[in-house]
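Take a sample.
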Amino acid sequence: MSVYRSFSYFYDMLTENISYKQRAEYFDMLIKKHGGKKNLLLDLACGTGSLSEEMSRLGYDVIGVDGSEEMLNSAIEKKLESGLNIQYLCQDMTKLDMFGTIDVTICALDSLNHLPDLGAIEKTVQRVSLFCEPSGLFIFDVNTPYKHKHVLGNNTFVYDMDEVYCVWQNTYSEQNNLVEMSLDFFERQENGSYRRYEDSFSEIAFDEKVIDDILVRSGFEIAAKYDYDTVLPPKTDSEKIVYAARKV
């Protein structure tokens, strides 16, 4: 599994269009809606810590976990600047190991899709379940096969920012709904030249029933499923589905 060495350096630039404050408010709303505790919260695959910061501001006691040291370095820099009391741990999601039980786990921005295969997703859900308080919540979003086929597909995306030019190329496999992603970054230097970085990773998507079955086998009941950023049920053309699962 990639540790996103170059990607982590440019991650915040590429996601500057995401309102982490709104994402945090959405998760907070779902937590309240499904009776979750405003207590110890795990931000699984926390990346550079932007969502962890916003959840902490909403009053949660946040632990952020990510497998990339580079991502966590950025998260710790934000923590030092904000002064928020967030604990960060560098761990592989499939080997999650907490000090005790967790009241709420969130996993945002299709992070589960970045795992290499179905077995890794199941291992991760099982580890979340192992450390989840009875009646605790696991709230996460996943990209759908529809998005992989019709949106990401065999497409190329270009991001032209003030300091960085990024070319993002996808290769889609319909056989397993896998999208291989290749990124080239060109960072403008002071002398006007550009320095090139590159990175690659993949995302895999599965049908709802496959994810449903993993949750049930891992000791969760599915409280609700939503079309992304709403409280409406998923549609056939939903690009992301948000799950709210409760530990039995």
